[in-house]
Amino acid sequence: MSLVLASTSRYRRELLERLGLPFDCARPEVDETPMNGEAPLALATRLATAKAAEVASRHPGAWVIGSDQVADLNGQPLGKPGTVEAACAQLAAMSGQTVRFHTAVCLSRDGESFTAVDLTEVCFRALEPDEIARYVTTEQPLDCAGSFKCEGLGISLFGAIDNRDPTALVGLPLIAVCGLLRRAGFAVP
Q: Relative to the CA of 131, which of 23, 72, 93, 149 has its CA 20 to 30 Å away?
């Protein structure tokens, strides 16, 4: 069976490589703009499903993994910052707060699909403006939901993390992915 990751994210690719299964990567052509009033969990689920379906439509017969993560600060979705200024503003807003990260994954092939979601709660410690600036300058987390890389120096921003799957916060919940792949007939491990 062929497998395609509907993502060009190096983080997701590196995570999926851990499973030792051969796969290709394809960029999903999906508008990621939130719908008016769309809750963060609904947004993550919709986008993961849309990414998998869009890439599956171009790869008939292949199983396609789509994933999306949305940071949820008091019910409001936070996207990827894109700029240093936006990253600093996001981290300042999350300072001393608990932020929920909804990570959805969808496995799709020829109209058949399976989905799963993961919730990670990150308790940010109180952050000073100078340490936010140092962190953003050092790690440049401009392509990461929430403006940090937990697998790197970003871990220093937290007071605690509560989750079932540590890979979910990086962007691809491998425990859920393994379950979906087994459901589709893949041998994992």
A: 72
Closest by alpha carbon to 172, among 2, 19, 57? 19
Per-residue pLDDT of 32-57, as tens digits, reads 998 998 999 999 999 999 999 999 99
Share of the chain above pLDDT 90, in %: 84
Give start and end residues of each alpha helix (H) in 8-164: 10-17, 40-58, 84-94, 129-139
Residue 98: which residues within 8 A CB-CB, separation 6 or more? 121, 122, 123, 124
Say whether pLDDT at 145 is over 90.
no
**Alpha-carbon gap, residue 34 to 39, rounded angstroms:** 9
Q: Say if residue 143's pLDDT is above 90.
A: no
End-to-end CA distance of the chain, in Å?
15
Q: Annotated catalytic sites, by residue?
A: 68
